[in-house]
Amino acid sequence: MGMKTEEKMIIKGRRLDGREPDELREIEMKVGVIPNANGSAQVSFGNTVAIAGVYGPRLLHPKHLQRADTAILQCRYNMAPFSVDERASPGPSRRSIEISKVTRLALEPALFLEEYPETVVDVYIEILQADGSTRVTGINAASLALADAGVPMRDLVVALSGGKIDETPIIDLNGKEDNYSVADIPFAFMPRKKEITLLQMDGLLTPDEIKSIFKNLLKAGQTIYEMQKQALRKKYEE
Amino acid sequence: MKKVRKIILPGEIVGNAKDKRSSYGTFVEEGNIVSKFLGILRESGGYLSVIPLSGVYIPRKQDKVIGFITDVERMGWIVDINSPWQAFLSLSEAVDEFIDLKRFDISKFYDVGDIVYAQVSDVKRGDVQLTMRTPMARKLKDGVTIKITPSKVPRLIGKEGSMINIVKEKTGTTIRVGQNGVVWISGEKVEKAIKVIKMIDEKAHIIGLTDEISKLLSD
């Protein structure tokens, strides 16, 4: 839920950047961009660019954090100082700590962490350029990076955002829409069984509106799922 | 465009649990066999398994590994075996004679930085034990080591050693391959051998790689 504006966000059924309400931005995915990491990926949704690196499973220090029965997952979401118009001050903030946590909770159900006791899987997500929906872009990059790292997974994790603007349900919000929307919903799920692993909402919606946004999210999620699969295959089929 | 084995992705359904059995790299869910890894599907004797194309080394009993001594303790050595867990080589598993620990410095046998070819004797959760009580076990001297993806070690060795023997022959080197993805090379054309081994690591999923490698080595 954002600030009030006099500007119309939807004109003649089209959004400010010319998209239909249920249309995704241009998506690019590349797997294996960090040679030193066990797995890595870069994902961009329009002008939002996220890069993720996965290290491990590796021995966890300090020792008191180790779990004798399972590995733990550590996620760090970080925005580069140059990722936004006004310089973001570097280091963790209240917002990035929260996003790191929900990212971890979104990825954990997809992993077989119990196969690697006493270890840690580190996921580092850097937002290089921010234009709305950064946390879901980061989750997509992390999902690809985890698959690339050979961490055993139940399924890939597909993430995207939905929302409402000027009475119209939309998906994949960009920065401006994010600021002036009535409501926005970051959403992540595992496509094979349609299990939802991340669901947040900021703003006000009626149950009917949520249902119609969900329908669009699941449909567009399939498109992103196919793109993730394609990106992973592409690394080996050259 | 080269011929490539079919790539299986995590979460992909690879078979039905009724007519096939689930093996390494897969799990059963609602009657389907599902892949855990990005890898290549293998079927043998009614078992379906997925060989990952990346990932860390998970120690298993009987594996022969190449490790680096990282610390000398009172009654043994800590060994880095390129896995998430450190391994321990105890004195009794490494030396036959009687040692009086009060007078004798055991770093005379193995010291920090030494490379050993040893066997995994026991794995309990994060606790890995090594032994030198196996015919091939020894200290490796005067060579270079490189690391490859542990799951691709069988590919580097080939059917009954076909691949690794070509490399050894054509480059005049001695090569030891640890199951943990560490390869030790010593001999004449070490650089060429390294180049070839790295190429095998990168192109493990390509069909007919052995021919391609032998062609490359003949040039």
Number of strands of chain A: 12
* CATH fold topology of chain A: Ribosomal Protein S5, domain 2
CATH level-4 homologous superfamily of the largest domain in chain B: Nucleic acid-binding proteins
* CATH architecture annotation of chain A: 2-Layer Sandwich
Strand content of chain B: 35-45%
Shape of chain A: globular
Give the topology, please:
The complex is a heterodimer of chains A (238) and B (219).
Chain A: E1 10-11, E2 14-15, E3 27-31, E4 39-45, E5 48-59, E6 72-79, H1 94-107, E7 119-129, H2 134-149, E8 158-165, E9 168-171, H3 175-180, E10 183-190, E11 195-199, E12 202-203, H4 207-236
Parallel strand pairs in A: 6-7
Antiparallel strand pairs in A: 1-2, 3-4, 4-5, 5-7, 8-9, 8-10, 10-11, 10-12
Helix pairs in contact in A: 1-2
Chain B: E1 7-8, E2 13-16, E3 21-22, E4 26-29, E5 32-35, E6 39-44, E7 47-52, E8 64-72, E9 76-80, E10 87-90, H1 91-94, E11 115-124, E12 127-131, E13 138-140, E14 144-147, H2 153-157, H3 162-171, E15 173-177, E16 182-187, H4 190-202, H5 209-218
Parallel strand pairs in B: 3-7, 10-12
Antiparallel strand pairs in B: 1-6, 2-5, 4-5, 6-7, 8-9, 8-11, 9-10, 11-12, 11-13, 14-16, 15-16
